[in-house]
Amino acid sequence: QVQLVESGGGLVQAGGSLRLSCAGSGIIFRFNVVDWYRQAPGQQRELVARITARDTTQYRDSVKGRFTISRDNAKNIVYLQMDSLKPDDTAAYYCHAQPSTYDYWGQGTQVTVSS
Asked: How far apart are the first and last CA of the chain?
């Protein structure tokens, strides 16, 4: 059974930093694509960052140069380091993986950036 558990969200002032963690069980992250999505109230869920099994990374334009996705293979955790946070980054952040036919999502962690 695949489970994804996010942590690390919180309240931070604009310009600050947070590091989100996604811990996986029932899945080996280094063999899969793992994504971070976010969803603000009244908005669609959007892809923020992606890391592939080959360590290729992708980012949405609005976070390039500020967010960094990485993976700790020994701990089976994917991180999202978020620097220079802006109020527009306020959202619930979700970890996602699709190791087979099914999509797997974490429960989400709230990030709130005050101006």
From this structure: 40
Please write the tens of the pLDDT for every residue from 2-31.
999 999 999 999 999 999 999 999 999 999
Provide DSSP, the chain.
--EEEEE--EEEETT--EEEEEEEESS-GGGS-EEEEEE-TTS--EEEEEE-TT--EEE-GGGTTTEEEEEETTTTEEEEEE-S--GGG-EEEEEEE-SSSS-EE---EEEEEE-
30-57 per-position pLDDT tens digit: 999 999 999 999 999 999 999 999 999 9
